[in-house]
Design a protein that fits this description.
Elements: E1 10-15, H1 25-41, E2 46-49, H2 63-73, E3 78-85, H3 91-104, E4 109-114, H4 121-128, H5 138-148, E5 170-174, H6 178-186, E6 190-192, H7 201-211, E7 223-231, H8 235-254, H9 273-282, E8 286-289, H10 291-305, E9 309-313, H11 319-334
Parallel strand pairs: 1-2, 1-9, 2-3, 3-4, 4-5, 5-6, 6-7, 7-8, 7-9
Length: 343
Amino acid sequence: MSTKQLSSLTYSILDLATVIEGKTPADTFKRSVDVARHAEEWGYERYWFAEHHNMISVASSATSLLIGHIAEKTTKIRVGSGGIMLPNHSPLIIAEQFGTLATLYPNRIDLGLGRAPGTDQLTAMAIRGERFSAPHDFPTDVRKLQAFLSAENKNSKVRAIPGEGTDVPIWILGSSTDSAHLAAAYGLPYAFASHFAPQQFLAAIKIYRDNFKPSAQLQQPYVMACVNVVVADTDQQAERLATSLKQLFMGIVTGKRKLLQEPVESMDGIWDDMQEEAVYQMLAVSFIGGPVKVKTDLQSFLAQTQVDEVMATSHIYDHQARLHSYELLANIIKGNLQLAANS
């Protein structure tokens, strides 16, 4: 039985810069600033954006620019990428970009790295061109990036200025077991995308922990799980809010993506049985409900996985309801349920 307490859990936010129906990316960015400022007050550790391309509902394609924007509008919360899709870029360019961010906002920038394109194959070809096979170079490119960010690179003929000597903390992201081996071998913290690819989550974190080798950055394995969270004052309210999330994932399953839709009273008539099953498989690691239910579910999840940190992503249509969900989550983890006595 786990001895790890919910109150010891670090909690953070993944913002996919979701564009909701009837709004624009400009509206999305304003709301991200508001969420980040509140998150800072509520004790969230970090605020990350993910690199995606050619997706109508996701406005975080220029990830490093959004990181800088949020860092400028906040004072202490860590801001970073969850993640930068490294095969889309040269390691030198990422070292310069994140080295610049780390110079502007010291000790506040994280660099999470993934190997997927963050988009469809046609768009990936448009991004990568002749470097389409770059995912095979991912382990080598991570090492190159680490070197560019290190002070030891000062005698190299190719240097990242700024960036050199900043040693921006690097994370390895994964949605399968592949990156677990890499994160373990390199001694880096491991963040798993259990918010959309939960099937291999338990196997991946076991591989990571069993094979972890200490590094200059990290002495012990560190696991972050990204999870879907929709908390409201009651279970019924949360389930209704979560229909926006379910509609979004149905768009992923069917290939018919839309902007984030308003919640509905029921998903009946919106999806068929096969679509429903596929969506629920993707949403297996989700925490939806009132505070008491979410607390119970989180405690069970922590006992099973022993994760060090959860990163919540909340696709909620109404901005105030989204803020309320993040505030309730913070209070649940901190053990302060005064705001949430009734579920």
